[in-house]
Design goal:
Elements (H helix, E strand, L loop, with lengths): L5 E7 L2 E10 L1 H16 L4 E12 L1 H17 L3 E5 L3 H9 L7 E3 L14 E2 L7 H18 L3 H4 L1 H17 L1
Parallel strand pairs: 2-3, 3-4, 4-5
Antiparallel strand pairs: 1-2, 1-6
Length: about 170
């Protein structure tokens, strides 16, 4: 992971703010997924993801965002708002059919990022093979759940990850 790829997180009013610096990748996804899971358990339902400083996103990162939005739908309340996406990132999200899961706010519409947010840098959990596998698999499953057309796009990834899971299941 590039040393400049980080996610800063904090609360502002009742919203959970996540600011992506650098690249949104499978390496930063596990920490974000765990943090948002804890925030949902604590009752937070509004999530704001600031992509102003996000250079690019991989499919695992976008699937993790989709998973957060799908979890909020499952609960029946909440929202995920994407702030300041550059053209490339917005196009990536739209091409995967994720634009219906969350709202977008452009720089002219978006509220300024609060400076008083108590921010912590999300530290990814150790990227042991099992954690990495589960993060990538659940993210790609969320991409397919969000838009069935993604099944064809990610069939090879899903098939490989599913095959890798089966020997582990037999060992238990």
């Amino acid at each position: 992971m590039s040393p400049k790829s980080t996610i800063l997180a904090g609360l502002y009013h009742q919203a959970v703010w996540l600011r992506v610096n650098g690249r949104g990748t499978f390496q930063t996804s596990a920490g974000m997924k765990e943090y948002t899971r804890r925030m949902v358990q604590r009752g937070h339902r509004e999530f704001i993801v600031d992509l102003a400083d996000c250079e690019l996103m991989d499919s695992t990162f976008m699937g993790t965002l989709a998973g957060i939005a799908l979890r909020l739908r499952e609960i029946g309340s909440g929202s995920l708002t994407v702030l300041h996406p550059n053209i490339r990132n917005r196009t990536l999200l739209e091409n995967l059919g994720l634009d219906h899961l969350f709202s977008f706010e452009s720089p002219s519409d978006a509220p300024p990022a609060p400076r008083q947010v108590a921010q912590e840098t999300l530290t990814p959990p150790p990227l042991d093979p099992a954690t990495q596998h589960d993060t990538i698999l659940s993210a790609h499953e969320a991409l397919v759940e969000a838009d069935p057309e993604n099944e064809e796009r990610f069939r090879d990834v899903l098939d490989l990850l599913t095959q890798e899971s089966q020997p582990n299941a037999a060992d238990t």
